[in-house]
Amino acid sequence: SSELTQDPAVSVALGQTVTITCQGDTLRTSFATWYQQKPGQAPLLVIYDTNIRPSGIPDRFSGSSSRDTASLTITGAQAEDEADYFCFSRDTSPNRLEVFGTGTKVAVL
Amino acid sequence: QVQLQESGPGLVEPSETLSLTCTVSGASINPYYWTWIRQPPGKGLEMIAYIFYSGSTKYNPSLESRVTISLATSKNQFFLTLNSVTAADTAVYYCARRRSYCSHGSCYGLIDYWGQGTLVTVSS
Known about the structure:
The complex is a heterodimer of chains A (109) and B (124). Chain A is an all-beta fold and 109 residues long. Chain A contains no helices and ten strands. In chain A, the strands form two sheets. In chain A, strands 2, 4, 5, 8, 9 and 10 form a six-stranded mixed sheet that branches. Chain A has a four-stranded antiparallel sheet with strand order 1-3-7-6, with no helix packed on it. With 124 residues, chain B is an all-beta fold. Helices cover 0% and strands 57% of the residues of chain B. Chain B contains no helices and eleven strands. Classes of the chains: A mainly beta (109), B mainly beta (124). Chains A and B meet through strand 8 and strand 9 of A and strand 5, strand 9 and strand 10 of B.
């Protein structure tokens, strides 16, 4: 099955910019979706189709992709952005379920 | 407003069967996919299975021999059973809606609505 690898943790100063990456072979041909998860809560969809924000998601969240890596950028991070972030995409085998990335814990200092 | 609610026992004994129900409100089962996802404490997310409103299913190969997903369209519910559980099956179990979208000539799935999750502990 496919693997989507993320850095375990990153930190960002309040108001600054942070980029989270997700690496995997499937991303060479598939778009990434991004979820935010706060402690004790279900994940929340923040980006899909590489860079589309669902209604209600602030425009400080943006996505991009290059070769085998998808990225989620938070421009002007707020305290409420402190959370775990997971990428999500198709498995390299088309007959398998989608897979989640390993997750990145973002700390806003 | 689409809402999903998991229900079922919070404690299951080793070797027994875990059974969960997800009740959907604010949306019809048709024409979506419905999925179960789990998250062991402090760990990442794992898709277990999904079922299309028509009844077709897809399973995680690592769990397929022990898992069944089913639905009751008239009740707007779907279900998960996981047999022969061990401590490794201890996790928060989420039910969720998976929908498809197509972009640049390919189609993808995404999870757009989640239940709040229910912790299932496997222990004697």
